[in-house]
Write a structure and sequence with these properties.
The protein is mainly α. Helix content is about 55%, strand content about 0%.
């Protein structure tokens, strides 16, 4: 599940910055306006990394858990420019926010999509959510796992 989500979120490991925000930073500044620890920094907390870390509260929590300080609040761009950090924050987000979900623990792939993108993709038919599940199916076949795969939790 983790690999499929990373593959989708990063455009097959090509991107470590949210594409929409690169094209329209003004919109992202509204969508991801800091309300917590980043409120007075003047920084933008849009999606960065291989599982796109968004919102100042996620940058703050990741920074405290990974480093014991606020370096990611002070410089959120390093999540996009440092490949090792892009992986570390993806693993942190997965371990903290996705993996513990009961649906994920039951093998419901859609539950992992819901934890990452929520209402943006889940709650009805959605091509992006279907594409994520297709990546998952491809990865599982590649590693030789032939057990039945379950999407339940996002679009069905």
């Amino acid at each position: 599940m983790f690999l499929a989500q990373v593959w989708h979120e990063s455009g097959a490991l090509k991107y470590t910055k949210e594409i929409l925000c690169q094209e329209n930073l003004a919109k992202c500044r509204v969508d991801y306006a800091p309300k917590g620890p980043g409120a007075s920094t003047g920084k933008d907390y849009y999606g960065r990394g291989y599982i796109q870390l968004t919102h100042d509260y996620n940058y703050d929590a990741a920074s405290k858990d990974l480093f014991g300080d606020d370096r990611l609040i002070k410089d959120p761009d390093q999540v996009a420019t440092d490949k090792e950090l892009a992986w570390r924050t993806a693993a942190w987000f997965w371990g903290k926010n996705v993996h513990p979900d009961p649906g994920v623990q039951e093998g419901k792939f859609g539950a992992s999509t819901k934890k990452i993108n929520g209402a943006l993709e889940c709650g009805g038919p959605n091509e992006k959510a279907k594409k994520r599940f297709e990546f998952y199916t491809t990865i599982m076949k590649a590693i030789g796992d032939t057990s039945p795969l379950v999407e339940a939790g996002c679009y069905n």
